[in-house]
Amino acid sequence: SSSSSSSSSSSSSTCEFGWYLNHSMGDFSIEEYFYPEIIGGVGSPIIDNIGPPVERQNPDGSPKELIRNFPFCVRCLEGQCPPGHYRPQCDWTVRSPANHQPCTPCGIGCPTDGFFRQPCLGFTEEFDSTCEPCTIGSCPAGFYRPLCPAASPPPANPPCVACRLWCGVGRQAVGCDGSTSFDDTVCEGCNGTCPSHQYISGGCDAISPAPICSDCSTSCAAGQYISAACTAVLDTQCSPCKTKCDPGYFLSGTCDGSATEDTTQCLPCRSQCGVGEYRAKQCLGSETEDVSTCLSCRTACFEGQYMSGDCSNGTSSADIECIPCSVCGPGTYTTGGSCDGNGRSDNVTCVPCTSNCSAGQYLDGFCSGDGRYDSVSCTDCRTTCAVGQYIFGSCSGLDAFDTTYCPQCAVVDTCPEGQYVANKCTGTTTSDTAACVDCAVQNCSAGFYIENGCVGTTSQDSAVCTQCAAGGCSAGQFRPTCNGSTYTNPECEFCTIGSCPPGHYRATCDGSGSEDAACVPCNTGGGGAG
Fold this sequence. Notes:
Layout: H1 2-9, E1 19-22, E2 28-29, H2 30-33, E3 54-57, E4 63-67, E5 72-75, E6 85-86, E7 104-105, E8 115-117, E9 131-133, E10 143-144, E11 161-162, E12 171-174, E13 186-189, E14 198-203, E15 211-215, E16 224-228, E17 237-240, E18 249-252, E19 265-268, E20 277-281, E21 293-296, E22 305-308, E23 321-324, E24 332-336, E25 348-352, E26 361-364, E27 377-380, E28 419-422, E29 435-438, E30 448-451, E31 464-467, E32 477-478, E33 493-494, E34 504-506, E35 519-521
Antiparallel strand pairs: 1-5, 2-4, 3-4, 6-7, 8-9, 10-11, 12-13, 14-15, 16-17, 18-19, 20-21, 22-23, 24-25, 26-27, 28-29, 30-31, 32-33, 34-35
């Protein structure tokens, strides 16, 4: 089939209209490059073999015929240009590697007046726009058709434009028959006049050539005055009377519409008050009477304020102003004037309160800012505590309270029996020094007692062994023997009386013994008394 295409195409050296002949491709495969969208003519390529076909294999192993220098037809680009450009038709007789025509700017203007030129949109144009003659005239009466200038011709034949139709009262428009390129309307006088008490209010045109007369107005509306008399073509002219004056004036008089001048006038309001007075209310210019009001100037302000401004000569428009005096903040107190409302200046001075004391002291008190003196003082921190406590902490002089306190000692005044309170907390130490310590004497020998023994409440070890007293009691008493563990010399005790079993009697106590009287068996011998 390749040979038949080659023979049928070799006689042709051109493409169809809108295509160009490409003759510069290198070796390529027909299967790869023979696409219908780029093939012109009858759908087959133009073959112009320069050498014999070269056999190569396709991917599936079948032979592939490659043709060297295979020219073919390619479709030319159409349009696709920016506005104001066109793309000329390609030369389909030229054998070229690329013969797409570039975008070319369209022409601007026309050689002479009287032409219009359609714009180039750049979409599909293949030729430059041309100048077409504009129509001259050919409009209905009352219209004209504008000229087409060569420098900026319109994009289409210009439409008809309406001529001037109104020339003013008392005049009529003549001309403009539709045959010209400009408005040739001419304003001419009206055919006729009105009586002296009337004016031309209409007519004088193509519909009513004769004038329409209307009576002149003899007055204006309320609030206006006659500013111009009635003329042949204009009614009586009215202008508004004044409705407002400048500040400091009030409006006097009225306009009823019959006067030929503004009968209102601006009169000055009162500008001076008496000594010690000010103008509390002033004229703004819209009032119809003097509304100025004088009031007495303020002579004092409230406490905590001072007076500012001058209100003594009667020309001021404001009263004395009350300005708050300075307010001192926390940590300060006020000095200077009292700021009682009678002063003319802020005479309050804020002074810092005490903020630093010596070591061992604290800042006692607080300055709220509204006081008249320094209410903060330096107070000594505690240096002693109660007995049984010790002092903890210290005062730097910068704190607002006493930063020392008195913790309770672990041992206050009582220890277990056999011990005494050593280094008792007296309230002046800075640490817990008290402790329970065993006494040296815990027991004595028989016949002795522990004098000043450690019962847990003493603050020193003063116990000693002291010999107990023997006897020395009254008749009927005895003194028990010391076992060495008591803390006092035994006291005399009364001997038991009676309380013996039958057949016994109680011996007597003479006060020298160390034991209670014992029960003694009675004597049961003959003749003896029991």
